[in-house]
C-alpha cells in the first residue's frame, strides 16, 4: 500500500479538494466510492468488499446510506499529490438537514445519475441544495456498462438542468471502473480548494456524529479555520459544552489518529461525549483555549415530523424496549420518545421521527438488532388544535385530541416534488388530489419526464402516499418533500369502539371527507380479524358521539366437537392445549379477546378495493351529505 | 374399576365423501388382514394384549361392555363377529349383563344376520341412519334408503337387542326442515337411543376438498346450532333425554360403553388404529418392543423408539394406539408383537385436562370432588411446576351458572359420589370448548 505524501495537519489548503456524491438510492454511489478508494491505493484489492463505506447491515441490505462518513483519499494529478476529502451523504428525504450539513462541508459535488434511469426527485432536490451552497457540480452518468444505459438521453437531461453541455457529462462505470480515474482528475481540476483562514481561531463544522460501541461518540468534522491539536480541549458552540478530546484523526480508510487537523481538512474527533446529543450535527467546534467568537452558520436542532406509538407485543418487554431506544438514541439525535400508556396496547413509547423512512429504520432496528416484537400505531403528524376557549393543544397522538368544540386545527404542510414519466401525469394528479394536494407548476425535464410540484398536508404523505405513488406509476415516480408552512383544515378524530368502548390504538385524525372510508375500512377489518365470542360484539366508528359506521360480530353459538370417543381424546386434548396457547397472545379489550394479529393487520394501511367496502363508504357519505 | 373392549373393523363397501375414519374398501390389504381372516387376526391381538397386560401388572376385571365399530363391522359375517365376542369371553370374561354392541350399516344386515348376532350374545345394535332425506343421503354418499333402516330396527326388535340410530346434521344443502324430517323419522322408529352428530368436515376428505374448492358450501356453525336445538327439543319431547353432548336415550338405555370413555375407564382397543387406555400402568412409558426399522416405518419415526417425554413417577395412565394400516398391523401381529403404532404416557396434568373435558360432555357432569382429588395428586406428583394448580370451589363457578352455561348439582346419579357436579346446560353443551377453557383457567392448567 502506498503511503500518502500529504500528512494530516500539515497539508496546504491548495492541495485539498473536498467533495460529496449526490445520487439516488441504487444509482451506484457506494460502488463508485468503493472504486475511488481502490484506485487511490488506500484499500488493497483483496480487502475490498462491496460497499466499504456502508457499515450497518440495514444500510447494506437496503442499498442506502443512512449516515455519512468522510474518507481522506490521495490522488496524484499532473505529478502533484492532492488530498481529496470524500464525504458520503445520506440519500433520503428524511435526512435533508444532514445532507445540507454534508454539503456545507464541501466545495464540490459529484452529481451521480444512473444512465439507465435518469435523475430522480430527491437527487434533484439535493442538487438544488448543492447549487444553493455554491458547490462546483461535476455531472456524471454511472452504469454505462449496462446494455440498457441511455447516456445520450440522460446527459441531455442533466445538461438541461445544470446548464452545461451534454458532452461535459462524464461517463463512468462503478462496476468496471471505467472513467473513474478521469472523474478524480476532474475533481482536482473543478472543485475549488478550501479558503479558510489557517491563522484564525479554530472553527470546525460537525457534519456527522455516530455512536460506536468501542469508541463512543465519533464526531466527523470539516476544519474551516485554524488548527485543532490532539489533547486540546474543544468547545461545542451551539450547545455550549466543553469536551476533553481523546483522539483526533482522519479516515483513510480506517480511523488513523493524527497530531492535528488543519484548515480545510476533513477528519474525526473522539471526545467523552456520552451520546450524539452532546455532539450535534451542524454545531461548530472550536478550541476551548482560543475560542472563535462566531459559530459557523446553519446550526439547528432536528425536529420530529412524524409520531407513532411503539408497544411491545409482550408487555413484559417494556424495559427492554426502553433500553433499546436508549441505545439507538446514542446514535440518533433526531429520535425522541416519551413513555405512553394505551388502554389497548399497554405500556410503550410515543416516538418522534424525521419522516417515514426514519420511522421504518428505527422500528426495523428495534426488531432486528434487539429482537423486540412490536406493535406500531399509525403514524401521526403534529396538529395545533385550538379549543373554543382558545386553549392551544399540540397533538401528536389522537388520544391528545381535545374533547368538545374545536375552533381551529392547523396541520403541517409540505412542498412535494414528484418526477415521473409523462404517461403517469393523470394518475399522479388524481392521487395528489385525493390526498388534498394543491397543484403548483409542472416542468418537462426531458422530452418524456416531468417534474410536478404540489403543496400537500404532511399527514397525507405519511399515511400511504409513497406506496400509492409507486404502485400507480409502476415504480417509476420519485418523490421529495420539504416543510412548507401549515394550513388550517377540517379535520376530525375518528374513534373505533369495540362493544361501546373506545380503543385508543385505533383512533385517527383524518380529514372529514376521509372519515367515512377510515371508519368503514377499520370496522370491516376488525370484524374479520376478531374471532366470534360468546356475545355479540358491535364494532363502531364514531366522530365524537356520532356513529358513522358499524359492523357486528355475531355471538358464537357453537364450538363443541361433535364426537369425542376413545380415539378422539388425545387429539381433542391437544387441540384444547393449542387453543389455550393461542389465547395467551390475545389482548383483552373489556371482555373482548382480540388477537395480536388484529392490531398489526388493522394498523397496516391499504386501499379499499372490494365493492362492499366502497358501497358502504359511499352510503355513509351520502347519509352525511 | 370398569374394563371395556373396543374392536375396530376397518372395512367398508365404499368410502363416504365426508369420512376420515381408518377404513378401507379393498377386501384384502395383505399382511393377513383380509376381510376373511380379520376375526382371526383380531383374536390374536386380544391374546397378545392380554399377555402384555400381565407383564405390566394390569389385572383387568371381566369386560362390562364390548363394542364393534368401524368402518363397517357388519361387512364381516355375523359368525365372525360372534367368534370375536367369544374370544373376549374366553380371554377376559364378560361381566354379568355385559353390554355388547355392534354398529351396523342398514345395507349389510337382514333379519337372519341380526338373529345370529342376538344368539351369539349381542345386546345392542347401532344403525348408521344419518338422514331420512334422500338428497342429504346422496350428499353424504350413503347408499341405504330410509326403508332399510326401519327394516333393520324391526328385525332387531324381533330378535331382542336394543337399538340405536346415528344421525348426521349440517351436510351441505340440508335445510332446517330436512333435518326436522330426519329427527322425526328417527323418533318414529321407536328406538330408545339416538346419536346426532354435527358433520365435521376434515380437509383431507373428498367433501373437505370440495368445500375448499368452493364447489360445496361450508357448514355454518349457526345452522348447526339451530339444528342441535331442534334435535334436543324434539328428542326430549319424545322422552329421549340427552346424556352426552351428541347422545339421547330413554332412562336406562344409555350406551354404557361410550359412557365409559367419558368417565375415563380402562379399555383395550383391538384392530388397526384403535386406541387403548389404562389408568394405572406400572412403567407406563415402556412399550412392547418393536424393531427400530419397523417402528419407524409404521409411525414415521413418531414415538415408537422415542424415550418417554417426562420422568415417570410411579403409576401413570397410558394411552396407546394400534398401527393404522391393516397390512402393517397384521405384520406386527404375525411377528408376535402387540401391534401398537404409538403411545403416550398421560401425565397427571394431562389426565386432569381429560377429566375436565370429558366430564363436561355428560349429563352426570364433572364431579368436583374427583376433580379436586386429581388436582391434589397432580400437584403432589407433577414435576413440571403444576403444583400451582388451584382446587375448585363451587362458588367460583357462579359466573358460569349466571351466564347459563352450567348448573351445579349435589350428588348426581350414576357414579355414586356425593360431591357437587358441574353440568352443562344446552348453551354450555354447544359452547363446550368455552366452558372447558374457563375451568382450565380457574384451575390454572
From TrEMBL, chain A:
A Pfam family the protein falls into: LepA_C
GO MF annotation terms: GTP binding; GTPase activity; ribosome binding; translation elongation factor activity
Positions that bind GTP: 26-31, 142-145
A cellular component annotation (GO) from this entry: plasma membrane
Family from the record: Belongs to the TRAFAC class translation factor GTPase superfamily. Classic translation factor GTPase family. LepA subfamily. Belongs to the GTP-binding elongation factor family. LepA subfamily.
Protein name from the UniProt record: Elongation factor 4
Xref: NCBIfam families: lepA, small_GTP
Membrane protein topology class: Peripheral membrane protein
Gene: lepA
Presence of the UniProt keyword Protein biosynthesis in the record: yes
BP term (GO), one: positive regulation of translation
Phylogenetic placement of the source organism: Bacteria, Bacillati, Actinomycetota, Actinomycetes, Bifidobacteriales
Function: Required for accurate and efficient protein synthesis under certain stress conditions. May act as a fidelity factor of the translation reaction, by catalyzing a one-codon backward translocation of tRNAs on improperly translocated ribosomes. Back-translocation proceeds from a post-translocation (POST) complex to a pre-translocation (PRE) complex, thus giving elongation factor G a second chance to translocate the tRNAs correctly. Binds to ribosomes in a GTP-dependent manner.
Tr-type G domain boundaries: 14-195
Subcellular location: Cell membrane
Annotated spans, Disordered: 603-625
Bias type Basic and acidic residues, positions: 608-625
Amino acid at each position: 500500500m502506498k503511503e500518502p505524501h500529504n500528512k494530516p495537519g500539515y497539508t496546504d489548503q491548495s492541495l485539498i479538494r473536498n467533495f460529496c456524491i449526490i445520487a439516488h438510492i441504487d444509482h451506484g454511489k457506494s460502488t463508485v466510492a468503493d472504486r475511488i478508494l481502490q484506485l487511490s491505493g488506500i484499500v488493497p484489492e483483496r480487502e475490498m468488499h462491496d460497499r466499504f463505506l456502508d457499515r450497518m447491515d440495514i444500510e447494506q441490505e437496503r442499498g442506502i446510506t443512512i449516515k455519512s462518513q468522510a474518507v481522506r483519499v490521495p490522488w496524484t494529478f499532473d505529478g502533484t499529490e492532492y488530498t481529496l476529502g470524500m464525504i458520503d451523504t445520506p440519500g433520503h428525504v428524511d435526512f435533508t438537514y444532514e445532507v445540507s450539513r454534508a454539503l456545507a462541508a464541501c466545495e464540490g459535488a459529484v452529481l451521480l445519475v444512473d444512465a439507465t434511469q435518469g435523475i430522480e426527485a430527491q437527487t434533484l432536490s439535493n442538487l438544488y441544495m448543492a447549487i444553493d451552497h455554491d458547490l462546483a457540480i461535476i455531472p456524471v452518468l454511472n452504469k454505462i456498462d449496462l446494455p440498457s444505459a441511455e447516456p445520450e438521453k440522460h446527459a441531455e437531461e442533466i445538461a438541461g438542468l445544470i446548464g452545461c453541455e451534454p458532452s461535459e457529462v462524464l461517463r463512468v462505470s462503478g462496476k468496471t471502473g471505467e472513467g473513474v480515474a478521469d472523474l478524480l482528475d476532474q475533481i482536482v481540476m473543478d472543485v475549488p480548494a478550501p479558503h479558510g483562514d489557517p491563522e484564525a481561531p479554530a472553527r470546525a463544522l460537525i457534519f456527522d456524529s455516530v455512536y460506536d460501541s468501542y469508541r463512543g461518540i465519533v464526531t466527523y468534522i470539516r476544519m474551516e479555520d485554524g488548527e485543532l491539536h490532539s489533547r486540546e480541549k474543544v468547545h461545542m458552540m451551539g450547545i455550549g459544552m466543553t469536551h476533553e478530546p481523546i483522539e483526533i484523526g482522519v479516515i483513510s480508510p480506517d480511523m488513523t489518529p493524527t497530531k492535528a487537523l488543519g484548515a480545510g481538512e476533513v477528519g474525526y474527533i473522539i471526545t467523552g461525549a456520552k451520546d450524539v446529543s452532546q455532539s450535534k450535527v451542524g454545531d461548530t467546534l472550536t478550541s476551548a483555549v482560543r475560542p472563535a467568537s462566531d459559530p459557523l452558520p446553519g446550526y439547528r436542532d432536528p425536529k420530529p415530523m412524524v409520531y407513532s406509538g411503539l408497544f411491545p407485543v409482550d408487555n413484559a418487554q417494556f424495559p427492554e424496549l426502553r433500553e433499546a431506544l436508549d441505545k439507538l438514541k446514542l446514535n440518533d439525535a433526531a429520535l425522541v420518545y416519551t413513555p405512553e400508556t394505551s388502554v389497548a396496547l399497554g405500556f410503550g413509547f410515543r416516538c418522534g421521527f424525521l419522516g417515514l423512512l426514519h420511522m421504518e429504520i428505527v422500528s426495523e432496528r428495534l426488531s432486528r438488532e434487539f429482537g423486540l416484537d412490536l406493535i406500531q400505531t399509525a403514524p401521526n403528524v403534529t396538529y395545533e388544535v385550538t379549543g373554543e376557549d382558545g386553549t392551544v393543544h399540540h397533538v401528536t397522538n389522537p388520544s391528545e385530541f381535545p374533547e368538545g368544540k374545536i375552533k381551529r386545527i392547523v396541520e403541517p404542510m409540505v412542498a412535494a416534488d414528484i418526477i415521473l414519466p409523462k404517461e403517469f401525469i393523470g394518475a399522479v394528479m388524481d392521487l395528489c388530489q385525493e390526498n388534498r394536494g394543491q397543484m403548483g407548476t409542472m416542468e418537462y425535464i426531458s422530452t418524456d419526464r416531468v417534474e410536478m410540484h404540489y403543496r400537500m398536508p404532511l399527514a397525507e404523505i405519511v399515511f400511504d402516499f409513497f406506496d400509492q405513488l409507486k404502485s400507480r406509476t409502476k415504480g417509476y415516480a420519485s418523490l421529495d418533500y420539504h416543510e412548507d408552512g401549515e394550513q388550517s383544515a377540517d379535520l376530525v378524530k375518528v374513534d373505533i369502539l369495540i362493544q361501546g368502548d373506545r380503543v385508543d390504538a385505533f383512533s385517527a385524525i383524518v380529514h372529514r371527507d376521509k372519515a367515512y372510508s377510515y371508519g368503514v375500512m377499520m370496522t370491516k377489518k376488525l370484524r374479520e380479524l376478531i374471532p366470534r365470542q360468546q356475545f355479540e360484539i358491535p364494532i363502531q366508528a364514531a366522530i365524537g358521539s356520532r356513529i358513522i359506521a358499524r359492523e357486528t360480530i355475531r355471538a358464537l353459538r357453537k364450538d363443541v366437537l361433535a364426537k369425542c370417543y376413545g380415539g378422539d381424546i388425545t387429539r381433542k386434548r391437544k387441540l384444547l392445549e393449542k387453543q389455550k396457547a393461542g389465547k395467551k397472545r390475545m389482548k383483552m379489550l373489556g371482555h373482548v379477546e382480540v388477537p395480536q394479529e388484529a392490531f398489526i393487520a388493522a394498523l397496516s394501511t391499504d386501499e379499499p378495493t372490494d365493492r362492499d367496502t366502497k358501497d358502504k363508504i359511499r352510503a355513509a357519505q351520502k347519509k352525511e351529505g | 374399576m370398569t374394563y371395556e373392549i373396543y374392536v375396530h373393523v376397518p372395512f367398508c363397501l365404499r368410502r363416504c365423501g365426508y369420512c376420515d375414519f381408518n377404513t378401507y374398501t379393498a377386501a384384502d390389504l395383505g399382511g393377513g388382514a383380509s376381510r376373511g381372516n380379520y376375526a382371526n387376526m383380531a383374536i390374536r391381538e386380544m391374546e397378545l394384549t392380554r399377555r402384555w397386560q400381565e407383564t405390566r401388572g394390569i389385572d383387568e376385571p371381566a369386560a362390562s361392555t364390548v363394542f364393534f365399530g368401524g368402518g363397517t363391522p357388519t361387512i364381516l359375517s355375523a359368525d365372525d363377529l360372534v367368534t370375536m365376542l367369544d374370544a373376549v369371553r374366553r380371554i377376559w370374561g364378560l361381566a354379568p349383563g355385559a353390554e355388547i354392541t355392534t354398529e351396523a350399516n342398514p345395507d349389510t344386515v337382514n333379519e337372519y344376520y341380526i338373529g345370529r348376532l342376538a344368539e351369539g350374545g349381542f345386546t345392542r345394535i347401532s344403525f348408521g341412519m344419518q338422514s331420512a332425506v334422500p338428497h342429504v343421503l346422496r350428499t353424504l354418499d350413503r347408499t341405504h334408503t330410509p326403508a332399510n333402516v326401519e327394516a333393520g330396527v324391526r328385525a332387531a326388535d324381533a330378535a331382542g337387542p336394543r337399538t340405536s340410530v346415528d344421525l348426521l346434521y349440517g351436510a351441505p344443502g340440508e335445510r332446517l326442515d330436512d333435518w326436522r324430517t330426519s329427527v322425526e323419522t328417527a323418533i318414529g322408529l321407536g328406538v330408545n337411543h339416538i346419536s346426532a352428530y354435527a358433520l365435521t368436515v376434515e380437509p383431507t376428505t373428498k367433501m373437505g376438498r370440495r368445500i375448499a374448492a368452493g364447489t360445496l358450501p361450508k357448514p355454518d356453525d349457526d345452522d348447526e346450532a339451530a339444528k342441535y336445538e331442534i334435535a334436543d327439543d324434539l328428542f326430549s319431547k319424545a322422552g329421549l333425554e340427552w346424556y352426552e353432548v351428541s347422545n339421547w336415550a330413554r332412562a336406562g338405555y344409555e350406551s354404557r360403553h361410550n359412557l365409559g370413555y367419558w368417565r375415563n375407564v380402562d379399555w383395550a382397543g383391538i384392530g388397526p388404529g384403535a386406541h387403548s387406555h389404562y389408568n394405572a400402568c406400572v412403567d407406563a412409558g415402556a412399550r412392547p418392543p418393536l424393531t427400530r426399522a419397523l417402528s419407524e416405518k409404521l409411525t414415521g419415526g413418531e414415538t415408537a423408539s422415542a424415550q418417554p417425554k417426562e420422568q415417570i413417577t410411579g403409576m401413570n395412565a397410558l394411552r396407546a394406539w394400534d398401527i393404522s394400516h391393516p397390512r402393517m398391523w397384521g405384520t406386527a401381529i404375525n411377528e408376535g408383537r402387540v401391534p401398537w403404532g404409538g403411545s403416550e404416557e398421560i401425565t397427571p396434568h394431562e389426565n386432569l385436562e381429560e377429566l375436565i373435558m370429558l366430564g363436561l360432555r355428560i349429563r352426570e357432569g364433572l364431579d368436583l370432588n374427583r376433580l379436586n382429588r386429581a388436582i391434589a395428586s397432580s400437584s403432589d406428583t407433577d414435576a413440571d411446576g403444576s403444583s400451582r394448580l388451584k382446587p375448585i370451589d363451587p362458588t367460583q363457578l357462579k359466573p358460569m351458572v349466571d351466564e347459563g352455561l352450567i348448573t351445579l348439582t349435589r350428588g348426581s346419579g350414576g357414579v355414586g359420589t356425593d360431591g357437587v357436579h358441574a353440568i352443562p346446560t344446552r348453551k354450555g353443551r354447544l359452547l363446550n370448548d368455552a366452558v372447558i377453557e374457563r375451568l382450565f383457567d380457574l384451575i390454572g392448567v
